[in-house]
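User:
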Amino acid sequence: MKYVFLVVLSLFSVLNINAQTDNEVLMTLGKKNITAGEYKYIYNKNNRSDLSKKTPDEYMELFTKFKLKVLEAETLKLDTTSKFKNEFEGYKTQLAKPYLTENVKINQLIKESYTRSKTDVKVDIIFLKLPQNPTPADTISVYNKAIGIRNELSAGTSWDSLAAKNSDDRGASRNYGHLPFITSEKIPYGIQNYLFSSKTGEISSPVRSSSGYYLIRKTDERANPGDVKVAHIMISSPQGTPEADAELKKKRIDSIYTALKKGADFSELAKLSDDKGTADKGGELQWFSTGRMVPEFENAAFAIKTKGAYTEPIKTDFGWHIIKLIDSKPPKTFEESEETLKQLVERDTERQELIKSYVRYKLKSEYKFKEENKPLKFHNALDSTVFEAKWTLNNPEGMTQTLFTINGKPYTEKDFAEYIQNNQKRTRKGDLKDYVTTTYEEFITHVLVQSEINDLASKQPDYKYLLQEYHDGLLLFELMEKEVWNKAIEDSVGLQRFFEQNKSNYKGQTELKLTIFEYQTDKIADKSLKIIKKAEGADGQAIAEKVSKNAQEFKFIETDTYLSGQNKYAEKLFEMMKNGEKIKAGEVLKIADYKAIVLVNEVITGREKAMSEIKGLVISDYQTYLENQWLEKLKSKYPVKINDSVFQKMKSEIK
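Assistant: Predicted structure:
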């Protein structure tokens, strides 16, 4: 229930609500002041639908009741429990994310990725692989080799010869490092940065990746053509096919092409295809974009401009193809691709390191970060149990040295040790010095981000009000559960007494006892009307079988008693009654909207019901009764005073 309550609070968009009255006191509950800004925020969020919109005067009563309950929860110190604090801290961190420096950078990278996705690039590469876990000497050696190759290229040595001789890319001996058009999402981020900032034909300096160094040259670029769906007929003729066989294959594809030109059906001819995965499907392939197919196939597919048109036989490394365009679609809009791009950014280690560096750099400046000492003690304090997530801090008294300060506040070795202890994870054993260095940077980032979160409420009014809303929502749930919801369910004596005192409220509701059938055709419906009228006392299933042995043609649904609003078929009859029509027991009615036949067994009016029949409704009414009584006590406990001059000014600011 709490989850649903809080989700409802978060469904509305955050509003920017700066105005003159925001910081003025609108109302006082007991000794607690409520500002006009808080009222406006909640009013605007909960009054966006014209169907349920209330005026500021009408909404004031709801707002007052809400704040009275929250104040009572605070008086009872429900916001001081560890359960509340832990839950609220979790929401606080989640709500802060859209405002954090980290998220600002993520959004920049998402937009950058989308801009780059609009362009496909054609690239030449020479790749020089580093050994696994390279030493500094390994790195320098490979880097110098890359510089030497670049110098040879600049001096005029052909790319093909140097790529074939030096590149560790598996395809270099065949393609000499010449790659086809490729989309940005398939290019490592560091290489992207060069390609999308360089001119065509320029040769890069060595670009480092996790596996080695690249020399890169952009040879062409084009607008992203989007996606295509094609069908193909393939006659297999891979490299190495004997010449005589290759000629026969060529004759086969030519004969198919000739048949197509004479009007033969493409789908039928596709059954002759050697691609057995598509032969029985008219040759249809899945949608694909740039970089998914071999270049010859891709280029031919994207060159077709008319749906239904097909190519001449095209040769690839797999054989001969005739390609027909089924459909095409343009590149996705930003809105369509935003979530995918966000996942790409969040999964990419290069971008994640960039984000962390950016956050540390920006927040260190903003929060006056000053490093006092290095965490040298930890090289000896830690042991290999940290890789098993079992390390514990044994000597906290000795961890007193300040490592750094943020806005003058010191963070000590003990703070860092507790961070390690609380955040260690099972991982592969490694070098403890490397672990300390990496985790120390994470600790600094964590502290800076927490400082930013704690500072957000004073910088971002909309975040402040959103945070207050979640704070109040959590408290309200705890209090309503205690004072109203559970009490109404558990107080069986009070519930029965309430029912006895209010029996008249549950009397006189019309009920319809109906037997419901569904039909398939008007002809069978007309037949059923005659049979049902004669079938006095027969049950629904027996009637249905008498009308038709085919359950799809005529089907018994159910026999039951309904109040208004409980059943879509019955509701049609209630609507007829509201419009003045009389519904009588024994009538058989056809409801064409639902293809249903309804037998009216009984029309029940004015019956006094037992509580067992309507217990849910009685509990709901009892909860409302308890809540209203409780609110009257709260109004006495916390007298409500509204500053009318501020209220009038505020109303002119509400849109």
